[in-house]
Amino acid sequence: MGDNASMIWNFTKMHGLGNDFVMLDGVRQSIDMTPDRARALAHRQFGIGCDQILLVDTPLHPEADFRYRIFNADGGEVEHCGNGARCFVKFVHEQKLSSRNPLRAEIATGLITLEALPNGDVVVDMGQTRFAPEDLPFDVTGLATRTEGTDTLYGLPLQVNGTEQLVWLSAVAISNPHAVQVVTDVDRAPVAQVGPLIESHPRFARRVNAGFLQIVDRHTAYLRVYERGAGETLACGTGACAAVAAGIRRGLLDSPVRLRARGGWLTIEWDGSALRMTGPTTTVFSSSIDIDRLVASIPAGI
Ligand SMILES: N[C@@H](CCC[C@H](N)C(=O)O)C(=O)O
């Protein structure tokens, strides 16, 4: 158990398809998370290194087994995390916080159900999917629109290398905001160049996760995501759900969809309301860290 005075935090490093996490048990140790602390833990050179931090805690909701909070590598707290949700289940079971299966977890936007399968994969009922621009929020005033299937696409003008390009985006909220574009070849998609322009575009008041989706056939797709607050990751679970929902609405995909992220494969099922994500999780190691010493060790401006 962590000692409050010395600020030693026990943690476990995990990943879901290479989207990596520092997992913290806030049930048996007292964790006061701040943006500075989250950034220090996530720092690839000075800290442990991760895309996100998950803080597991006792629930406030009477029907939940646990509550967990999610922090991006930039220190910002966010609504949802698909790969983190799967890691949460394995973490709770391995740390013997609970042997319950399925589990009910409280996240910032409500309750979700998660289940460990006999093969070790975890299936997550991802909760509400929304498509109205105000759900992200996405200010679409004056933007060109186009209808494809049952989806509305918004033409976002971007300056790329001094040239204006119109990028057609599906708007999807899986609690957290996603802007998905279809590309012909995900390996050649300009994720590093265009991703940050979309992620921080002023029309997305809370910024956005930018997805690049390649359709392979009606049940197979490839995806890369430039994540809000973390940059391109090897996989993004909510991004996968958003991309599949957008692909189905656009008439390009049918459920179930096998989706390949750079770090591996997920299965996404969507019947127009319930959205389920199934995939693996991995525990890397557990250790402990003096959080205040870590924060103090990072030079200003880095
Ligand atoms: N990697 C996650 C998503 C984490 C949050 C995201 N970067 C955001 O800011 O909304 C996933 O697997 O879903």
From TrEMBL:
Molecular function (GO) terms listed? Answer: diaminopimelate epimerase activity
Classification via InterPro entries: DAP_epimerase_AS, DAP_epimerase_DapF
Known EC number(s)? 5.1.1.7
Q: What class of enzyme is it?
A: isomerase
Identify the keywords attached in UniProt to this record, alphabetized. Answer: Amino-acid biosynthesis, Cytoplasm, Isomerase, Lysine biosynthesis
Q: What function is annotated for this protein?
A: Catalyzes the stereoinversion of LL-2,6-diaminopimelate (L,L-DAP) to meso-diaminopimelate (meso-DAP), a precursor of L-lysine and an essential component of the bacterial peptidoglycan.
Family assignment from sequence similarity? Belongs to the diaminopimelate epimerase family.
PANTHER family in the record: DIAMINOPIMELATE EPIMERASE, DIAMINOPIMELATE EPIMERASE, CHLOROPLASTIC
Q: What is this protein called?
A: Diaminopimelate epimerase
Q: Which organism is it from?
A: Zwartia hollandica
Gene that specifies this protein: dapF
